[in-house]
Amino acid sequence: LPYSKIDIPSFYYAKQICDTIVMPAAKFGGKVHGGIDVQLPVRLYEANLVLDTSATIRDNINLILETMNQADLVWSGGKFKLKLEYPTSAAAEDALVDASHFFTEDDIIRQSVTRNYPNAQERYNQVTVRFQNESENFKDDSITWPKTFSPVHSTYLSEDNGQPMKTEISTPGITNPYIAQAKAEYMVRFSRSVFHIELTLNKKALTLEPGDYFKLSSPNLGINNENFIAEEVEV
After folding, report:
1. What are the Cα distances from residue 72, in Å, to 35, 84, 94, 217, 234?
2. DSSP label of 6
3. Is the model's pLDDT at 111 over the cut of 80?
4. How big is the CA angle at 233 (ends 210 and 235), to the nearest 5 degrees?
5. Average pLDDT of the residues in 71-84
6. What average pLDDT does the structure give for the chain?
7. H helix or E strand, kind and range, residue 158
8. Which of 116, 84, 89, 60 is nearest to 209 (CA)?
9. Collapsing DSSP states into helix, strand and coil, what is residue 103?
10. What would the pLDDT profile of 175-234 be if each residue is shown by its tens digit?
11. CA–CA distances in Å: residue 211 to residues 1, 32, 36, 208
């Protein structure tokens, strides 16, 4: 693709997020690290995988996107834009909401409004991530979060009436055990806090893109000044 079709600043911004140091020093081993234990920083996201040139470009892109949380490649203004955010506080999340993306009851066109919570197949109290561990010379490995019968696990089990709600995923691009554990934790926490709404808004919403944060207040829906992320947008 020519550079004119790529929103370069959005990719640079995403690179800075991926390079965020989440652990200043962690233990690594294996041949890839010289065969000795070393202390290295852990970045937020890494992709360590082989891309098949016979696969479609989109399939390869999706493999890379799956190593990150809430990463979207969108077509906007005649360019491909990479949407990736990582707010670490409520204030940081609020700062991601554009001034034109505040919606109230007056902006809702009442054709239909649906509000869906994750069902038992989408809500987890434990997730296992299978990956090829670079510290073990890329042997098949797995990490589970939270650990069975840990305080967090026991709390979640209690909230779920003692029902184990587990899932396992494979992550081709993740070879770092710390990032694998973070992926498992993210999936558990996200599944327990998220809910989806589908609604029709007036023309103020025309500038919303997938991946954009927006704020919604609707007493009738029981939503009070909460932040959402646009997953799909349709005119």
Report:
1. 37, 7, 19, 25, 16
2. B
3. no
4. 145
5. 92
6. 93
7. helix 151-159
8. 84
9. strand
10. 999 999 999 999 999 999 989 999 999 999 999 999 999 999 999 888 999 999 999 999
11. 22, 35, 41, 9
CA distance 215 to 227: 4
Is the pLDDT score of 31 beyond 90?
Answer: yes
Give DSSP secondary structure letters for 28-74. E-SGGGTTS-EEEEEES-----PPPTTS-HHHHHHHHHTTSSS-EEE
**Euclidean distance between CA atoms 140 and 138, whole angstroms:** 6
DSSP 98: -
* Total count of residues recorded for the chain: 235
Q: What is the pLDDT of residue 53?
A: 93
> Model confidence at 13, in pLDDT bands (50, 70, 90)?
very high
**214: exposed, middle or buried (Cβ count in 10 Å: 0-12, 13-18, 19+):** buried
Tokens of 158: 């209690």
Q: What is the pTM of this model?
A: 0.88
Residue 50 one-letter amino acid: V
d(CA 226, CA 37): 45
Question: Distance (Å, rounded) from C-alpha 31 to C-alpha 69?
Answer: 29
Are 141 and 181 within 8 A, CB to CB?
A: no
**Quick one: tokens of 210?**
């997938």
